[in-house]
Amino acid sequence: MNCLDARRALGADPGRRTPELEAHLAGCAACARHADELLRLERTLRRALEVAVPAAGARPAAAPWRAARPRTRWLALAASLTGVAVLAAALWALYPREALASALVGHMRHEPQAWQTAAPVPPGALAYVLNRAGIALAPDAPLVSYAQSCWFRGWFVPHLVVQTPDGPMTVMVLTHEHVSAPTLVDEGGYRVLIVPAARGSLAVLTRGPVGAERIEAVVARVAAAVSFTG
Which of 19, 74, 142, 220 is the most buried (most CB within 10 A)? Predict the structure, then answer.
């Protein structure tokens, strides 16, 4: 079982464990943390939905309570629903970024040849990929050794590999994917950093134990070199 399969299984039922999932979680710290976060959120959500309801046949001691009881119960229900809404917003803020990182890693598995050359892409081929996405790169951008226009989550996006002192890194300019804050995810042998951009977001993927600050430096350099023309 890989990280993408594990997270899909956890998303379907965070409390269910198969032998394959247990084995993956034992060897993958990132997915184990993900599983713990999902279980904590599920417990919190369950508590928010636990609204105390009077037992059948129970009678209030005084008339004023009889008049107030429906309002009190509605207030309790409203408070619980508010809690659910807050938790749903938290889930939406966190897990779309995780899902985006998983989709990027899955996409990389279909293009292993992207890492195999360090020679610069011919200018005409690079211009075609960039123009199709409505972007341009400044002359001081990192050397691009691979460039393809890839179908990704409903859009054609530029899939580039740039050469850096830490080896090749994949850059994907995702003009239709919006994130509110930088997200660093370790999955399937990759480190994925997704950051907000002037339009959409930028994602950088690298293999091996490259420090986050080194990846951030590449993201900053690429972001400074990208301009949007379309």
Answer: 142
